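Protocol step 4 of 5: obtain the predicted structure for the target chain.
Materials: sequence only (see below). No template structures provided, no constraints applied. The aim of this step is simply to have a reference model before the mutagenesis design in step 5. Sequence pasted as it appears in the construct record:
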Amino acid sequence: MTGQKFQELADIMKRLRKDCPWDREQTHDSIKGATIEETYELIEAIDLKNYDEMKSELGDLLLHILFHSVMAEEMNKFEINDVIDSIKDKLIRRHPHVFGDVKVNGTDEIVKNWEEIKLSEGRESVLEGVPKNLPSLARAYRLQEKASKVGFDWDNKSDVWKKVIEEMDEMHEMERSGDKVKLEEELGDLFFALTNYARFLGINPENALRFTNEKFISRFSYVEKKIKESGRKMTESTLEEMDKFWEESKGRKSVQ
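Step 4 output (structure tokens):
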């Protein structure tokens, strides 16, 4: 049944490319932004534990996979079955402890084997495969994570924290110098060190910052609501008034 439903969806996509003027005009470049957007909408649904939305967003993402595949087929580059064969072969090749006779002792060995297999596939660096277009915080995390899988890592968490303090001191020192270019570089080093520390804590910094952004939006919206209820505009209120409502917002159950 799954195969039949998938084929029906693929047929719908091909029909759209043939009969819908908008779908027919699209290219890989014209929809790539929407592909990224659908991915972020899926992440939001996952964050909210909204499984109805997750189901819908997974469908939208699947549609984009088919959309790109159908366009590639029209160009005689590849088609959806090639996409499926590619990921199927990759999963089997990179799990020799499941589909072969390789013996492993725990997750660490699995991860190490994974990186060795990728290098054997032709990659020149373990850092290949980390997209340049990832948000910088997420990219820093992935770069550090991939380097750590081949043993390039700190020995303990306390040393990582010392590095955070060191980078913070260097940033403050550069701030006093007035060199904006160097200050930006030092701030980047601090973010990178904090990302490393988050990794040692078992926390994905991109997720942590995303949650904090949502918390800020919720609390600031409460401040705006209270100021509006008082019959004034935000620009007419004082910082002390806004701080008062900000502190109130922290006690609300809807705000984490």
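Step 4 remarks: The radius of gyration is 24 Å. Residues 207-249 form one domain.
Proceed to step 5.
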